[in-house]
Amino acid sequence: MSDHPRMLLTFNIDTIGHHHAAWRHPDTDPRRANDFEYYAHLAVLAEDAGVHSVFIADGVSHDPDNTHAPVLGLEPFTLFSAIAARTSRVGVILTVSSSFSHPYTVARQFASLEHISRGRSGINIVTSTGDAAARNYGLDRLPDHGARYRRAHEFADVITELWDSWDDDALELDAGANRFVRPGAVRRIDHVGENFRVTGPLNSPRGPQGRPVIVQAGSSQDGREFASGRADVVYTISQSLDDAQDFYRDIKQRAAAAGRDPDRVKVLLGIRVLVEDSGTRAREKAAELQDLLPYEQKLAGISRILQTDLTRLAREEPVPPLPEPTDRHQFQTQLVMIRKLIDRGEVKTIGDLIERLDGGQGVSSITGDPVEVADHFEEWFRAGTADGFIILPQITQTSGPNFLRSVLPELRRRGLFEQSTGGTLKHQLGLDA
Known about the structure:
There is one protein chain. The protein is α/β, with parallel strands linked by helices. It has two domains: about 10-130 and about 205-275 and about 365-430, TIM Barrel; about 295-360, no CATH class. The protein is built from 14 helices and 13 strands. The protein has helices at about 35-50, 75-85, 105-115, 130-135, 145-165, 220-230, 240-255, 280-290, 295-305, 330-345, 350-355, 370-380, 395-415, 425-430, and strands at about 10, 55, 90-95, 120-125, 170-175, 180, 190, 195-200, 215, 235, 265-275, 365-370, 390-395. The strands form three sheets. The chain has an eight-stranded parallel β-barrel with strand order 1-2-3-4-9-10-11-13, surrounded by eight helices. Strands 5-6 form a two-stranded antiparallel ribbon. Helix 2 (about 75-85) links the parallel strand 2 and strand 3. Helix 2 runs parallel beside helix 3, helix 3 packs across helix 5 (about 145-165) and helix 12 (about 370-380) packs across helix 13. The chain is globular, with a radius of gyration of 22 Å. The two termini are about 15 Å apart.
């Protein structure tokens, strides 16, 4: 592990929660799903608690036949620009699809967000999943996994070249000499590649960080290669402490092999939390969530992740053989993880599988009182699974504030977490040394 003395924490501000039944629970007001004021409220709570950054995922398609899932309809750039204006210290990390976005537009948007936030922005570069998303952008189907990552590599190249097309001190602002920009301080990039042709330069000066923090989420071999070579922060998930340790070591080793300082590539592990003052009450709520998710819906969600139809199987039946991950699989990380659970004998039946996924997409869950939850974070942090964690409340409107108000003080008491004092996001993450 890094010698950095603190646990890095990112808080996901999805206003509903990270359990598929969270919107149906009495603790949730589903009208807040598209209420900006509540997103802002969560971001301010996280900032006041000293969390280093807030984050939100994104998707670019919707199934009109899926009438039981909440729709979070706020576009991330719009949302996080407003949140940046409401906050002053917490970092803002938002998701962008390299599969369907143009690098010039994204580089320009982030240059603006950098100035609005005064250097607190981060870009989570993802390769989209699902043919429905492809059809929204003029394609019949999603390109294969390798092609998506080749595009992601080139996308990252171009946005970085555009941010670097301005020197830090390019603005001369000499009215007497009639010179706004220092000669030679702004350059074309003249990029010609497989997916993009971009002349440049960007039409915006560099922000306080020089460029935003680059984040990558994905644990496939292509994802690991992309992350270790380009990302400042790597998001991952795991159901096993041993697997999380292996992933952590692998990313650090790949970063070193790519000529990078491994301590400047931060690994953050997603953990779903359900925390109450009483562990008994927390476990009661967990059971309530499971009861609110129909069996058929659980199987449909798992079938979509595995791209294997399990919907006709009973709880006591064994999990059928699962396919090897291929370029056409949309959720390679989850498929590999579940295959490992089966191979180790930790998952045998459909019921076992439902219990392990726990109304989500394979992210490890911890349920309990503040001390129990803090114990889990301490164990995994000290074991060298990550440089920090992404907090995913199962019921955001109660468990989110509960975590911020009760678990963070316990982690601080144990010397595991230091409250952020602000500055650029790179500074908060220990990336500017």
